[in-house]
Amino acid sequence: xxxxxxxxxxxxxxxxxxxxxxTAAEYPAPLPLTGQQIIHDPTVIRLTSGEYAAYSTGxxxxxxxxxxxxxxxxxxxxxxxxxxxxxxxxxxxxPWAPDISYxxxxxxxxxxxxxWGTNHSAIGVATSDSGRPGTWTDHGKVFTSGTTDTWxxxxxxxxxxxxxxxxxxxxxxxxxxxxxxxxxxxxxxxxATVHHLxxxxxxxxxxxxxxxxxxxxxxxxxxxxxxxxxxxxxxYKIRVGRSASITGPYVDSTGTPLLQGGGDxxxxxxxxxxxxxxxxxxxxxGKDWLAYHYYDATDEGTPKLALNRLSWSKEGWPKxx
Length: 321
Description:
By secondary structure, the protein is mostly beta strands. It is built from one helix and 21 strands.
């Protein structure tokens, strides 16, 4: 009996070392929110004024403001009207998937303009002294893609590493890519190498909306897998990998490269929260938060804002709570 007990103890210890994936019943609900919660592809930041701002796809980059992260007010749009060059990429001048950051005494808002089913796309940038809606000055194109390229210039996400400024971007057209930016202009360095960070083995690849953060000695790549934008039929989920180098290679906790379809499952649909994705990560008062949208099964699949705290395991992997 002692031999069998010892074997059982050893087996349990080995299982404890293996990565685990939460079941739907184990996923925590997001922070309870009130006010204007309708949002898609949120990017959130705490402004120097003390307010929180959330920008998103919808409108001319839709804006929400909050004093406490819990109650959100509709604040109109980042811009009063579309920039004229946006119409080169879609008929409505509709911008997508913004990313907000702060550096060099200014707020920087990156966004994409494109159309469904094409990689004739562009990423643009605007700046503001306050970060509030209606104060942004557009500075034009940062990086573009065309139908002969093997990537898609959408879903920008800015990060800094090794004294340089980087932009992760992309979807479907072979997955997530990255280029170096000129910190003075915020635009792609001419002739910059396009690094490949993540993809899946088969078309349509279905990985997009990346966001990269540094924790400890690793860079963590969060990405949305599968399908968005179909209400309660959406299958978006968030997966993550990490790398000691900003340009990769990124791997999951089993060692599977994200360039081979790897990625630990961080969050997927559960209960009323369908198609969780379009994520970004922000820090507030020393704490890490995951912002994302979900499609509300109790409200006809309306996309809404969700916020969850992020914790980190002893092995350095993120978990929502």
